[in-house]
Design a protein that fits this description.
globular, mainly alpha, single chain, 377 residues
C-alpha cells in the first residue's frame, strides 16, 4: 500500500508549483540580444553585471523549475491509481486540454489585436512569433488552416507545450507505470529516456526532459521513496554547493572566448546544464524545508499560491511583447535591461494574480474553466 502524502510534502508541492511558475515568467523576461535560450546558448555580447546576472539566473539557477513540475505531476498522478483510467483521462482533458485550447486562443486574439496598430504591429513583427516566411510576418497574413494549426498545435502562448506533453504522458501512464515498476521495463526505459534528456531530444509530444522527470515522479511514488528526509548521498548542502558552482562555471564559460575549444563548448554547456538541473532539484527540494514551513504558515502566501496556473497561462506571449516594448522605450536609461528584467516579470505576475482574483470572485465558474478547476479555494 503506497505511503500517503505527508503534510510537509503536500506543502512543498504547492510551494514549488507556485515558485516554479513565478520563475518561469522571469526566464521568459530574459532580454539579452539572443533571447531564445537553449542549454548551449552563447550570449554573443560582452560580459557585464547585467549580462552575467541574467544568464546566470535565466539559463542557470532557474532552470530546474520545469523538471520540478514534471516530477510533482508524475508523483501526484501516481497517487490516484484507484480511479478508472477512462475517468481520469476524461478529467484530464477537462483540466488540461480545455484550458490549453482556451489560453491558446487568448494568445492568438491578443496578438491579432496588437497587429491592428502600427506601433504594436512593429513590435509583433520584431519578435518573429508569427513569422511564417520572409513575406508573411503577421497573423493577418496566415491562411485559415495555418491559424488553426497555430491554435491547436503551435500556440503563440508557447508555455502551453507543458500542458500538451503532460496530457500525452497521462494518456501513456499505464505504460509508463509498467516501465518504472518492472525490472524488464526499467532496464530499457530509463537508459532510453535518459539519453533522450541528455541529447535534449524533442519529438513534439514526447520530449526527453518531460518524460524522464514525469516517470521519475511515478517511480518515487511507487517505491515509497522518502521525499521528506534525504539520504546521505542527497545532502542538500553538498548539492547546493554543486548547483551554485556549476551555474557560475557555465555562465563564465558562455562569456569566455571559446575559439580554442571550437564546437566542443556546446556539449560542455549541455553537460553542465544537465548537472545544474539535477543538483538544483535535489538542493531545492530537500534544502527548502524551513522556507516552505515559514511561507506556508502565512495566509498571504497561501492565498498567492492559489494563482500558480493563472500566472503560467497569462504571462506569455505578453511578456515577449513587453520585453520588446521596454527595449525600445527605455534603451537610453542606465541599467535598463537589468531593471526591466526584474520589474517587467514582477508587474506581469501582479497583473496575473489581480486578474485571477477578480475573475475568481466575480465569475468563479468561468475561472474554474480557465484554470481547469485549480485555485478555486
Amino acid at each position: 500500500m503506497p505511503t500517503p502524502l505527508t503534510e510537509m510534502s503536500s506543502q512543498k508541492f504547492r510551494f514549488w508549483s507556485f515558485i516554479s511558475m513565478a520563475l518561469l515568467v522571469f526566464v521568459h523576461g530574459y532580454n539579452l540580444h539572443i533571447r531564445f535560450l537553449q542549454p548551449w546558448t552563447i550570449p554573443g555580447e560582452p560580459l557585464t553585471f547585467t549580462t552575467f546576472t541574467e544568464y546566470f539566473l535565466a539559463n542557470g539557477i532557474f532552470r530546474f523549475r520545469i523538471p520540478m513540475l514534471f516530477v510533482i505531476s508524475g508523483f501526484l498522478y501516481a497517487l490516484h491509481d484507484h480511479q478508472p483510467y477512462k475517468q481520469r483521462i476524461q478529467k484530464r482533458f477537462r483540466t488540461l486540454m480545455l484550458p490549453y485550447l482556451l489560453w491558446s486562443a487568448v494568445g492568438l486574439l491578443l496578438t491579432y489585436f496588437l497587429e491592428l496598430f502600427p506601433f504594436s504591429r512593429d513590435i509583433v513583427a520584431s519578435t518573429n512569433l508569427t513569422r511564417i516566411d520572409a513575406e508573411r510576418l503577421f497573423l493577418h497574413d496566415h491562411r485559415w488552416y495555418e491559424l488553426l494549426g497555430q491554435w491547436i498545435l503551435f500556440p503563440l502562448s508557447f508555455q502551453l507545450w507543458f500542458i500538451r506533453v503532460l496530457f500525452v504522458y497521462n494518456l501513456a501512464y499505464p505504460a509508463l507505470r509498467w516501465c518504472v515498476t518492472h525490472a524488464t521495463g526499467r532496464a530499457f526505459f530509463f537508459p532510453t529516456v535518459l539519453l533522450m534528456w541528455l541529447s535534449t531530444m524533442g519529438l513534439y509530444f514526447f520530449e526527453g526532459e518531460g518524460i524522464l522527470f514525469f516517470s521519475l515522479g511515478i517511480w518515487l511514488q511507487k517505491n515509497n521513496f522518502n521525499i521528506d528526509i534525504p539520504p546521505r548521498y542527497l545532502n542538500p548542502i553538498l548539492w547546493g554547493f554543486v548547483f551554485i558552482t556549476l551555474s557560475l562555471v557555465k555562465t563564465w564559460l558562455a562569456f569566455t572566448d571559446t575559439s580554442m575549444m571550437g564546437n566542443a563548448v556546446y556539449p560542455l554547456l549541455i553537460i553542465l546544464h544537465k548537472l545544474i538541473i539535477v543538483s538544483g532539484l535535489i538542493s531545492a527540494w530537500y534544502g527548502s524545508d524551513r522556507v516552505v514551513n515559514w511561507c506556508m504558515k502565512r495566509r498571504w502566501f497561501v492565498w498567492l499560491s492559489a494563482f500558480s496556473f493563472i500566472i503560467y497561462a497569462l504571462h506569455a506571449p505578453a511578456i515577449v511583447f513587453a520585453v520588446e516594448w521596454s527595449a525600445r522605450t527605455f534603451h537610453y536609461f542606465p541599467l535598463y535591461r537589468i531593471l526591466t528584467f526584474v520589474i517587467l516579470p514582477t508587474v506581469i505576475i501582479i497583473v496575473s494574480i489581480t486578474f485571477g482574483a477578480l475573475v475568481r470572485k466575480a465569475m468563479p465558474r468561468i475561472y474554474g474553466i480557465l484554470t481547469g478547476g485549480r485555485g478555486l479555494s
